[in-house]
Amino acid sequence: MDLQQKVQKVLDQAVENGTECGCQAALFINGKLEVNAFAGWTDWTRTQKVDENTIFPIYSTGKAPSSTVIHRLVEMGKLTYHTRIADFWPEFGCNGKENMEVWHVLSYRAGLFNIPESTPEERADFQVMTAKIAKATPAYEIGSKQQYHPWTYGWLTGGIACHVLNNPDYPSIFRELVGKPAGMDRFFYGIDLEKERNAATLVASQDGEAYSQEVIDRMNDPMNRAGCNPSSGAMSNALSIARHYAALDTGLLRPETLEIATRSWRGENDPMSLVKGRWELFGLGYVLSGPPDDVSQIIGHGGVGGSEGLLDRKKHYAIAITRNCFAEPNVLVPFYQAVDFKNRDWPDFSEIPQK
Question: In the structure, what pLDDT confidence band is assigned to residue 353 with cuts at 50, 70 and 90?
Answer without folding.
Answer: very low
